[in-house]
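ok posting inputs for the xylulose-1,5-bisphosphate job
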Amino acid sequence: MTRLQALIFDVDGTLADNERDGHRVAFNEAFAAYGLDWDWSPELYGKLLDITGGKERIKFYVETYRTGELSPNDMDAFIAALHKEKTRLYTDLIAQHRLPLRIGVKRLLDEARDAGLRLAIATTTSLVNVTTLLENTLSPDAVKWFDVIAAGDVVRSKKPAPDIYFYALDGLKLQSNQCLAIEDSANGLQAATQANLKTLITYNDYTADHNFDQAIFIADHLGDPHTPCTVRKSPIQHIDLVDVSFLKQLL
Ligand code: XBP
Ligand code: MG
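and the output
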């Protein structure tokens, strides 16, 4: 039997419920700073989330909803600059401690470290967004808790491609059957599954109706002692929270 060695966490929507009140807000503030009258409502943003990666999401929006507003020649450079401003605004927001971790995340990270499990991140978002979130929600040295932080543009193709998970596995020097992935979205699940990782889903308001057929476990969050999770799919009959002994049984 293969022993569980590491947990690989997605970030946005999984560690924190940070899309609507974090990334979306920063995108809109960046648009305003650049004098653009673009405004991504919570509803529109839910649709745009199908496109992973901030630069890719802006490009899709321009090509779909703002045809002809930017010249194709300077589009990539303009989007890169706009996205840089969005990243600055997003990290400012996170540094003001404006977004908490999701239920059970801190507990499970602490338990995993105590149990000697290794930790990694596999995310579409930019590296500085991850480190800022970890430092401001967990501890100033929390970046060191993770053996690998695979983020953003280090791979050619973002989720739902599996590249970022293969990158994380390479960094960990582990096989997929020694690790579990924790995700919140269909794109994330597809990426992890294509990298042959068994995957748990903690869905959120934006992702609750995604197709999670390939997940081994689905719940509304990881659960805490006083805040049990509601489980939608599990190979084990009843749990109130996801802990290390449950994860070992899942593998
Ligand atoms: C989710 C995403 C990200 C963020 C924006 O990533 O698609 O693109 O919405 O981040 P994940 P950037 O769930 O894989 O963490 O603007 O930095 O790209
Ligand atoms: Mg996610």
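notes: The chain is about 40% helix and 10% strand. The radius of gyration is 18 Å.
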